[in-house]
Structure formats: C-alpha cells, structure tokens
Amino acid sequence: MSDQDNDVGMSDDEFQNSLEEIAEDLCSLVDGYSELSSGIRDSEEIDRLNDVAMGLEQFTQIGGRIKDARATEVLMAGTIAQLACAGTNLTYGKLLPGLEDSVGKEISMEGLKSFLTRAWTLIRETLERFWDRMRNFFYRIFGAIPRMRRVLTGIKERLNKRDAELLEGRKIGKKIVPLTSLELFVNKSFQGIATGKMINDAVKELSPWIEFFMTQYPKKLNEMIASSTSYLDSFSTTMTKEMDDLLLKMNKDFLARYAGLTPSGVVMKTGVSAVMKVRRAHLPAGWLIEIEDARESKHEHAFLKAVDIQTSVSVKMFRLLGHGGKAGKPGQMVEINSFTKSDALSMCDSLINMCNQLEKFERSGWDKKYEESIRALKQAGDNLDSIYIKREIGTIYRSTIRSAINYAHLYGHRLSGIQGQMARHAMQTITNGVTILRRLL
Q1: What DSSP state is assigned to residue 261?
Q2: Are 362 and 138 in contact (CB under 8 A)?
Q3: What strands lie across the sheet with 175-178, from one edge to the other?
Q4: In the beta sheet, which residues pair with residue 193?
Q5: Where would I find the H helices in 161-216?
Q6: Are 347 and 433 in contact (CB under 8 A)?
Q7: Between the CA of residue 154 and those of 52, 309, 440, what are the distances in Å?
Q8: Which residue, among 72, 60, 140, has the nearest Cα to 96 in the 3D structure?
Q9: d(CA 269, CA 287)
C-alpha cells in the first residue's frame, strides 16, 4: 500500500500530530539546506581548482617544448605559476624551481607536474565531499515528504468539509500570514497584499520544472554519463595518434546530448550572458533557470576544444536582485485576500503533486544511479590515467587524456548541483504553501 493510500480520513488528533511533525522536519531541513550550501561552496572550489589545473596542463604542453627560454617566456611562466598558487600555501618557486636562472635554458616542468597530480587528487576528494553533502540533503527531504503530503491531504479534506459555510467561488476573506511565507510566490512589485490567484498561479508555474528536474533531467544526464564512460573505456585501447579524433567525437557527442537538456513543452528564451550563449526560463518571484551553452571554440586541438566546453557549460538556478517582495521587519505579517475555495483546493493538489515528484525521484533510485554512474566514469578515468602516465607518453597526449577524464568532474557537480537547488526550492515552496493554507482553515 502506498503512502497516498494512507493519506485519507485524518482525525483532528492525527492532523495536529502531523503539523507538529513537519515543524520538526523544518528544523531538520534547515540543517539540510546548510549541507547543500556547503556542497555548493565545494562545487565552486572544484571549479576553481579545475580551471587552474586545466590551464597548467595547457602550459606544461607549451612550456615543455621550450628548450632555449627567452626572458619574456620565463616571465610568462612565472606569472602563470603565481596565478596557480593564488589561494594556496604554495609559492611559484616550488612549482618552477630555478626559474630565474632558466633564461637560455629549458624550463623544468617537474614541479608543475607534481602540483597537477596533487590538484587532481584534491579535486576528486572535494567531489566526493560534495556528493556526501548532496546525499545527506536528499535523505532529509525524502524523510519529510510523506508527512508533508499527509498534512496537505488533511488540509484539503477540511476545506472540502466547509461546503455549508464556504460555497464554491466565495471568497475566504482576508487572512494574515508571515511575509516570509510569500517570498516564493510574489514578484518585486508586491506591495503587501496577495491574492489566492497570484499564489496559486506561482505554484502551477513552478510544477513543470520540479517534474523535469526530478524525472526527465536525471534520465538524460545518466545517459550522457554512460556515453562518456564508454568513450573513456575506448581511450584505454586507442593508439596515441588516434586520441585526438576520439576526443573530438567525445566532444561532439556531449554537445549533441547537452543540447537536449531542456524540458518538453516549456519554452526557454535564448540570450547572451557576458560572452556566453544561454537558454533561460523565468520562474515565479524572480527565480531564473539558466543553461549556459558551450563556448564557441576556435582551437585546433581536441583537448583545447574540450577545455572550452567544460569551463563554459553549466545548469544553474539563481534569484534576480530585488525580488520576493519588499523587505519587512522580522515576523512581519501581511494580508491575503480574494482566496477562493477552488484556489485553495487547486493549490493543495499542486503541492501534493510536488511531493509526489520528489518522492518519484527517490523511488526511481536516480540519486544512487548517479553515484554509480559517476563512480564508473571516475574509475574509467583513473584506469586511463594510470595506463598512459606510466607509459610516459607525450604531454600533448596527457592533455588529451586529462580533458577526456575531466568530463567526470563536469557531470559530478556542474550539471548535477541544479537538482539539489531545485529540490530545496520545491520543499520551501511546499512548506510555505502549508503555512498559507493552514491560515485558511
């Protein structure tokens, strides 16, 4: 028997107990949001380390060819090493020992290569920590969903029983709610009085996005990961001179699949953010979904094309400044009026559907499938790394291999972090919706 089958005929005591339970859930979710925020910071650290490491990989390829360094080349090498050391306890002298005496000589790359080995290890460790935090966050959500749905079902039952005093279409009248409970439903022009239609429309507008990121998106992303894993397996049996062609195919395959990361039936507008082409969709209350497309690459080498792809694509969610209504005092209460019974019942149904979509993500096991897929991708990358590094292959081929392996880091956080953000947004919407609906009883 499903949880939905149990969510009927709640007594007043059961309803009150469920309300107390979700109050405890909210405290747990606050901790979960903190976990997620830490995970996002981990993701940003991965980006920083990854950008530095990829830049140094390119430099070792170029610098390794210099046998009679000019003063300008030595200066350039020192500048690059200083940038790599930013935010660490390293000095560029450790990365490029004896650099000042390298004019007219070969610049030693051994320090940089050693740093790169440690950097890739640190990226892997940070990625593992990111996934631990994401996993803990989702566990907190999954535990709260059944109780949230029970409360919403209880509210719906009680609204239905009020037919004698609240006929269909009659306005419920003014109700006072905390300003914070409206922040996901109103835009920046909000002046302090909300309507049931305004709130209900916002919930309905958000629903397709919850469904997309909890069902369609993980399936598409898992298919992309499986394809990239297959390519990495192919690299391990590919001759070095054929690697460039294989990576070009891998890049092309990724771009074709990435272009399909949009929800069906929802129009996203194309625009430009800084120098990036983006696909955007506006959500209620100033929230924005932004899918950044790959930077157009004019490089000849496949590994440089891969770098352009991996450092530009991302799927993210953020809020535009000035939205969520006018800032108020702590605990400030605001009015809701023109809230009909049909508005309230429709809102209950939409929020219950959000609970079901989040639970569908849990029951499908996509979070576990992600971990398994990314682990397989990383393992394929580690195997490939060890095969060719031990062979002491040329730097250009090492860069090609590293670029292929780096797709694991791309999937591991830049394309999967959006799901944690969307799940958090859904749970906040549900809890804020419950706060509003309770005031109508």
Answers
A1: -
A2: yes
A3: 175-178, 333-337, 193-195
A4: 335
A5: 196-211
A6: yes
A7: 54, 49, 13
A8: 60
A9: 14
CB 176 within 8 A of CB 194: no
Tokens of 174: 């003014």
Lookup: tokens for 57? 């990989």
Residue whose C-alpha is closest to residue 39's, from 314, 419, 426, 358: 419
CA distance 403 to 120: 12
SS3 6: helix
Take residue 183 and report the two structure tokens written for it: 């922040």
Is the Cβ–Cβ distance between 167 and 31 less than 8 Å? Answer: no
What's the CA gap between 159 and 371, in Å, rounded? 42
Cα 373 from Cα 310, distance rounded (Å): 19
Closest CA to 182 of 316, 327, 37: 327
| Separation CA 313–CA 279 (nearest Å) | 11
Residue with tokens 């090498």: 77
Helix (H, G, I), strand (E, B) or coil at 66: coil
Q: Indicate the length of the chain as a whole number.
A: 441
Query: Does 326 score more than 70 pLDDT?
Result: no
Q: How far apart are CA 45 and CA 38, in angstroms?
A: 11
Res 251: pLDDT: 93
For the cut 60, the answer to whether the pLDDT of residue 167 exceeds it is no
Rounded distance, CA 304 to CA 299, Å? 6
Query: What type of residue sits at position 418?
Result: I
Confidence class for position 5, pLDDT limits 50, 70, 90 = very low
Strand order, beta sheet including 314-319:
269-273, 276-282, 287-292, 314-319
Tell me how crowded residue 264 is: count the other CB atoms within 10 A of its CB. 8
Secondary structure (3-state) at 19: helix
What Å distances lie between residue 432 and 23, 100, 185, 404, 428, CA to CA?
12, 62, 9, 44, 6
Query: Given phi > 0 = left and psi -120 to 50 = alpha, else beta, which region is 241?
Result: alpha
pLDDT of residue 87: 59
Tokens of 386: 């060890």
Average pLDDT over residues 10-17: 70
C-alpha distances out from residue 189 to 118, 182, 194, 338, Å: 50, 13, 11, 18
Tell me the β-bridge partners of 336. 175, 194
Instruction: Write the DSSP string, 366-426.
Output: HHHHHHHHHHHHHHHHHHHHHHHHHTT--HHHHHHHHHHHTHHHIIIIITTHHHHHHHHHH
